[in-house]
Write a structure and sequence with these properties.
The structure holds two protein chains of two kinds. Chain A is mainly alpha-helical. Chain A contains 13 helices and two strands, in the order αααββαααααααααα. A two-stranded antiparallel sheet of chain A has the order 1-2. In chain A, helix 6 crosses helix 7, helix 10 runs antiparallel to helix 13 and helix 12 crosses helix 13. The C terminus of chain A is likely disordered. Chain B is mostly helical. Chain B has two domains: 42 residues; 232 residues, Orthogonal Bundle (MetI-like fold), CATH 1.10.3720.10. The two termini of chain B are 30 Å apart. Classes of the chains: A mainly alpha, B mainly alpha.
Chain lengths: 300, 281
């Protein structure tokens, strides 16, 4: 009996320790990034680092300003949102409220597959199809903000579709019934009643999409051109925070190396802010699904 | 539920909305088919036996070493992440009381982990495993890095699978005199197996598709890894390196085909397993 009790206690402790691994992981990641990144920022100067417009890490008098990369990330992400969100939302609306069941079964597997395709394949697609396409359609050399936005817009589609579809489905049926009873057409009920009711869930989907776009590395590096200068137009090349790290990590040394870690810290902080926003928004979305559960129970 | 043409005539805006929605879904599916079809058309003709030659040379660009090291990496990272993730989920679902502060913290950190971009993981892996622990560019460093990456995925899917197990199972087991530990391992875990497996399969897909986190942890050597401390590139990194060199676009496309097929198989397998789970409950 005591042996059994010991086993119970022991395994409980093991489970507890394993449960803490994600806490430990986040703590270690923060520790390593900040301990190496913050001193570098201090050495360069916080303002100089964050708002400097020149990135010349290997020059005689090196300059470490990452404003071009911050702007690059913001531009590219904004472009991805402009392209990806409308298409994604319309798709989600179709899947949630217009799709016949048989078609749904046919459409879901490909959309799930889309989320699973490695970013390197998207990058390859962008490099060989989208780059020449924008080159012939709009001029320039094709490696541009526009191409990167297009590609990222495609890549965030499954995220947007999946999350906003479940948000739309979580809206209680009574909302729809009420609207239709008042004389609205199916389309009008969906567009003016259900869609607004799923607002928080959709916002959460968009925020997650932003997170994916801002953190994407390999696909962006293959189509964005990677010139470390202030973005001059959507047909010009640009470098993002992520691609700055990847392109130079291979040979960076000394302060340059630390500056790249500091770049990752900035990226990390961006993501943390998005995470906080996400949890605020999705907490707001929770009551709706709760209501739905209640309704379901009453039906039963 | 569907509007007829008559209603559309009376409400033209509804028609516009309907058309927009249809256009959206056609565009999404169309883009997906474009990506898949393009990679297939571009890559399949170059899928020669040479690409699967036993040894890599700069002429044949064999992907066999890359395939081997991908499998090894998947194995090691699962070996690390699955026990940790499953045990974590067991604690969260079976042991932790409601409103536990620790549980809240675990949730927040798990969510944070799943949001961190892969390049940040790569940098972290380089700082900790490659440099601080002195493993160098190696399979082991890469595996540990991606293990942390897939941890939240495994925790979440296991948690959901465990939650889906009906409480009557647990009560029955307790009623027959089994202890908590025994109940968990003999009753709850087997019933949740399909859900856990589906999560693990998706995690495998993530490991196979990962590039940015591995570039500076596992390195890009194209030969077979002789031990876990050797650098070796996975299939995705292989494809990236080939397409960056510019000389081997055809071989890169062919590698893309193999990657795509693997991901497709894994995805269908995961949804098959998940479906089995649904029909059971």
């Amino acid at each position: 009996m005591t042996k059994k009790l010991f086993a119970e206690k022991f395994m409980k402790a093991v489970f507890l320790i394993c449960a803490c691994v994600s806490i430990i992981a986040v703590a270690i990641i923060c520790f390593f990034m900040f301990v190496r990144g913050i001193p570098a920022m201090r050495e360069i100067g916080f303002v100089e680092f964050l708002f400097g417009e020149k990135w010349r890490p290997t020059a005689q008098i090196p300059k470490f300003g990452i404003l071009p990369m911050i702007m690059g990330s913001i531009y590219v992400t904004a472009g991805a949102i402009i392209i990806g969100v409308p298409i994604g939302l319309l798709t989600a609306i179709f899947l949630a409220k217009f799709c016949p069941k048989k078609l749904y079964k046919l459409l879901m597997p490909p959309i799930n597959l889309m989320a699973g395709i490695p970013s390197i394949i998207y990058g390859f697609f962008g490099m060989v199809v989208l780059v020449p396409l924008t080159r012939t359609l709009f001029g320039g050399d094709g490696n541009s903000i526009l191409t990167a936005s297009l590609l990222l817009g495609i890549m965030i589609l499954p995220t947007i579709v999946g999350l906003s579809e479940s948000a739309l489905k979580a809206v209680p049926e009574s909302y729809y019934e009420g609207a239709v009873a008042l004389g609205a057409t199916h389309e009008r009920a969906v567009a003016t009643v259900i869609f607004p009711a799923a607002k928080s869930g959709i916002m959460a989907a968009v925020i997650l999409g932003i997170g994916r776009a801002i953190g994407e590395t390999m696909a962006v590096i293959m189509v964005a051109g990677n010139q470390p200068r202030m973005p001059k137009g959507i047909l010009k090349g640009v470098r993002t925070l992520t691609s700055n790290i990847v392109t130079e990590m291979g040979y960076a040394e000394g302060l340059h190396y630390e500056a790249l870690i500091a770049t990752a810290v900035v990226l990390f902080v961006f993501i943390l802010i998005l995470n906080v926003l996400f949890s605020i928004v999705s907490n707001k979305a929770a009551p709706i699904s709760f209501k739905r559960k209640k309704v379901k129970k009453e039906e039963a | 539920m569907k509007s007829s043409w008559k209603t559309f005539k009376a409400h033209p805006m509804s028609l516009v909305f309907f058309i927009l929605v249809c256009a959206g879904v056609i565009l999404t599916v169309g883009i997906l088919f474009l990506v898949v079809a393009f990679v297939l058309i571009r890559g399949v003709p170059y899928l020669t036996p040479d690409l699967f030659a036993l040894e890599y040379t700069s002429e044949n660009c064999s992907m066999l070493p890359a395939i081997v090291s991908t499998i090894e990496m998947v194995g090691i990272s699962l070996l690390v992440a699955v026990p940790l993730g499953v045990f974590c989920a067991i604690y969260l679902v079976e042991y932790a009381g409601k409103g536990n502060k620790l549980v809240k913290l675990i949730r927040v950190t798990t969510e944070t982990l799943s949001g961190i971009p892969s390049i940040v993981y790569g940098l972290f892996g380089m700082l900790l495993f490659v440099r601080a622990l002195g493993w160098g560019y190696s399979l082991l460093a890469g595996s540990f890095t991606v293990a942390i990456m897939i941890l939240p995925l495994i925790i979440r899917s296991t948690e959901e699978a465990l939650k889906a197990v009906d409480d009557s199972y647990r009560e029955g087991s307790f009623g027959l005199g089994a202890g908590k530990l025994r109940t968990v391992f003999v009753i709850v875990l087997p019933s949740a197996m399909n859900g856990i497996l589906a999560g693990i399969i998706l995690a495998i897909g993530r490991v196979i598709g990962e590039t940015a986190a591995l570039m500076y942890t596992a390195g890009t050597v194209a030969a077979y890894p002789k031990s876990v401390f050797d650098s070796s590139r996975t299939l995705s990194l292989h494809m990236y390196s080939l397409s960056r060199e510019g000389m081997h676009m055809n071989e890169a496309a062919a590698t893309g085909v193999v990657l795509l097929i693997v991901v497709f198989l894994l995805n269908s397998f995961a949804s098959f397993v998940a479906k089995k789970l649904k029909s059971k409950t």
